[in-house]
Amino acid sequence: MAKVSFSGGRRGAFGIVGHVGVAHVHSHSGFVQDDSAGFAAAGLLLRDATNASTRIALVQANRHTGLFTVFTEGGGRGTVHARRGITPAELRLAEAAVGRDALFSQVAATETFGRIAGQGSMEAPAAFQGACALAALDTFVKASGGRLRTAEGEIPGNYDRYAGTVLDIDGIPCSVLLVVNGTDGGLGPDEDCEGNTNPGAKGRLMADLGLNEIPTAVLESKAYIPSKAEGLRENTFLVRAQAGVDCTALGAALKTSADRLGLPSEFSDSMMPLAPGSMERATREAAARIMKLASEFASASKCEDKVQLAAELNRFCSEDLGGVTFMGNEVNDRMRGAGTLPGITAVLSMMVTREYRDRMVIPEFTPEDARHYHEILAGAFRRMAGGTRS
């Protein structure tokens, strides 16, 4: 296990950014993920440094206002509103979440409510997940003794929060940034400020930590990727750094580190191209699918046909539509789907097998997974520190 402590410096030699896209569970064509993985892995580093507990100590839910409030054993607090209110049964479920780990927020929500989905389809679980993530972040802020620098998001209707500091990881100073991306009401993903995108207050915090210029690992989700699952025999770490765009030296170091640890891994320098217009095209294609379903519904006369069409529209909106709602077209044109600054970034994530997806339905990021992220990062940074940066 990597040795982690607060650093004396204001900027790291390397960067680590981990975000949670609250309720960004599904995308198109069967893609499904735990999009709290990066936040949990980066947050676990802060938990090592602070020794603060992110376990849920108390959950309060106001049925009249629709507010979930989560309190951690470490003194953190997070509150998020569920648009359509909270039923008595949802209140009982949420109150039974005591003892679960708010840092692993999607798992906490899934274990509490059974499952979670975005795009406004499951507002109570999404709001609860957001409250967990905010409570975990607040735990670290309060335990850091002022060493954690914070900023708030500026997108209307969002409760985005950012917190960063410099940690020594096995003696190497690293700027670490935690990012919460959430939409009020439990509506699901709005991630224009995910990863190491650098607008507004988040950008100023990143510049303060040097995260606009140092080689940075963006920690991403544990996901079932249909196009990659064929032939995958075990859950596998995925490193991505686009040739001619990203920091391929960091990508290669992450891959080498995973290999030396004996962890299954794959490296790609072609999965994250800059492709302006791709999100706009995907959005139009999604709209065309909705209009086709609407047209079929308008002409339906039999009850069974209406029910089947309504079910497909609900499935499409709660799953496939997540592939276009999570990010604006212009942001995607510049930062791509993982929210990555060109020139300095490599992405570390996980792919799961079809068997795992069939068994779990929704992937769950674990503390063991997070520790493997740490080991891969530490090995890569040691390798980079002893050689070249680019």
Mean pLDDT comes to 96
Number of strands: 13
Order of helices and strands: EEEHEEEHHHEEEHEHEHEHHHHEHH
Taking all Cα atoms into account, the compactness measure Rg is 20 Å
Strand content: 15-25%
Helix content: 25-40%
Q: Determine the structural class based on helices, strands and strand pairing.
A: alpha/beta
Q: How many domains make up the 3D coordinates?
A: 2
Question: What are the defining features of this structure?
Answer:
single chain; 390 residues; alpha/beta; 2 domains; 10-stranded mixed beta sheet; 3-stranded antiparallel beta sheet; 13 strands
Quick summary of this structure?
The protein has helices at about 35-50, 90-95, 105-115, 125-145, 200-210, 225-230, 250-260, 280-300, 305-320, 320-325, 330-335, 355-360, 365-385, and strands at about 5, 15-20, 30-35, 55-60, 65-70, 75-80, 150, 160-170, 170-180, 215-225, 235-240, 265-270, 345-350. It has about 400 residues and is of the alpha/beta class.
Detailed description of the structure:
By secondary structure, the protein is of the alpha/beta class. It folds into two domains: 4-274 and 339-384, no CATH class; 275-335. 39% of the residues lie in helices and 21% in strands. It has helices spanning 37-50, 88-95, 105-113, 123-143, 200-209, 226-229, 248-260, 278-299, 303-318, 322-325, 329-335, 354-360, 367-385; strands at 4-6, 14-21, 32-34, 56-62, 67-72, 77-81, 149-152, 161-169, 172-181, 216-224, 236-240, 265-268, 345-351. The strands form two sheets. Strands 1, 2, 3, 7, 8, 9, 10, 11, 12 and 13 form a ten-stranded mixed sheet that branches. Strands 4-5-6 form a three-stranded antiparallel sheet. A hairpin with a 4-residue loop joins strand 5 and strand 6. The protein is globular and about 70 Å long. The two termini are 27 Å apart. The mean pLDDT is 96.
